[in-house]
Specification:
- It is a single chain.
- This protein has 198 residues and is an alpha/beta fold.
- Helix content is 40%, strand content 22%.
- The chain has seven helices and seven strands; from the N terminus they run E-H-E-H-E-H-H-E-H-E-H-E-E-H.
- It has a seven-stranded mixed sheet with strand order 3-2-1-4-5-6-7, with helices on both faces.
- Helix 1 links the parallel strand 1 and strand 2.
- The structure holds glycinamide ribonucleotide.
Length: 198
């Protein structure tokens, strides 16, 4: 069974989708083994604890440097024998030193149809603000492998979501999560777990 770690920063609805997918059997080739947050008050930690998943908090300011922060995460991943890393609302850009260690083993969910509205500075609600400002009529979500280019790794799955004339960034964010992110993230994690060779 593939061992999965999920890295989070906030509410953790995508983590919840993974927890629910493991319970329902949609995620069956991998097991959620560790949740790491870079914020002590991330609600995602409560979701993990409620599901009986081990948690850890790694704070950049306590580590002293970006390198030490990443090294602490690597140490946790190694001590837990983690195979696949899922970034589920993890609001940190990982260095090339980190991403090169795990080729095709880090998965990210991004709330737009890459290559639109992605890269540095495009995260969370900002992505939806940018889509509405531009006036696109269709947006969506993308699950992709993580490499050294922010949001630039190979695409695994995408799902489109229609924009409504009445949408605000908040209503759009919720609909993209419900119709796209919470569906394609568990499906993509299952696919990668199934294909993963130790
Ligand atoms: C999600 O919409 C996710 O796609 C986005 O942050 C939100 C986290 O929500 N991630 C990014 O913007 C990464 N560039 P969650 O904590 O409820 O899963």
């Amino acid at each position: 069974m593939t061992k999965i770690a999920v890295l989070v920063s906030g509410g953790g609805t995508n983590l919840q989708a993974l927890i629910d997918a493991e319970k329902s059997g949609v995620l069956k080739s991998g097991t959620l083994s560790l949740v790491i947050a870079n914020k002590a008050d991330a609600y995602a930690l409560t979701r993990a604890q409620n599901a009986g998943i081990e948690t850890a908090v790694v704070l950049k300011k306590e580590c002293g440097s970006a390198e030490a922060f990443e090294q602490r995460i690597v140490d946790l991943l190694e001590s837990h024998d983690i195979d696949i890393i899922v970034l589920a609302g993890f609001m940190v850009i990982l260095s090339e030193q980190f991403t090169a260690r795990y080729p095709r083993r880090i998965i990210n969910v991004h709330p737009s149809l890459i290559p639109s509205f992605c890269g540095e500075g495009f995260y969370g609600l900002r992505v939806h603000e940018a889509a509405l400002q531009y006036g696109v009529k269709v947006t969506g979500a993308t699950v992709h492998f993580v490499n050294e280019i922010p949001d630039g790794g190979e695409i695994i799955m995408q799902k489109a979501v229609a924009i409504r004339p009445t949408d605000t960034p908040e209503t759009l964010q919720k609909r993209v999560m419900r119709l796209a992110e919470w569906k394609i993230l568990p499906a993509a994690v299952e696919k990668v777990s199934k294909e993963y060779v130790k």
